[in-house]
Amino acid sequence: MNDINVVSMTGRLTRDMEIKYSRSGAPVGRLSIAVNGSRKHGDQWEQTASFIDCILFGQSATNLEQYLVKGRQVAGSGELRQDRWDQDGQTRTRINVVIDSIALLGGSQSGGSGDNGGGNGQRDRG
What's the CA angle centered on 121, arms 120 and 124, to 5 degrees? Predict the structure, then answer.
């Protein structure tokens, strides 16, 4: 049986998506999604937030750049990827979600127009 690596989340972008280009010239969009939740601490419920770093490859990144702005609510799914590198003699790691599909939900946090700007982006590792 193969292992399963699937992540699904809904949250708000913490910053505008930033696009850079790979050595081959392919667009690589980096974004961060705040996913809110709650947990019980004693008798009280407290609000929590997780900040998830994500990567969107290819034409989807450039097509959605104008819509993936701070405060925008999105639903995304993809797979976890762990990057490893050495820095100052120590091994460092970072986990990102490589987005397969992203849907624009509602407007921005400030209310926005509600226009979803064209719907889903599909991963293109170009």
Answer: 155
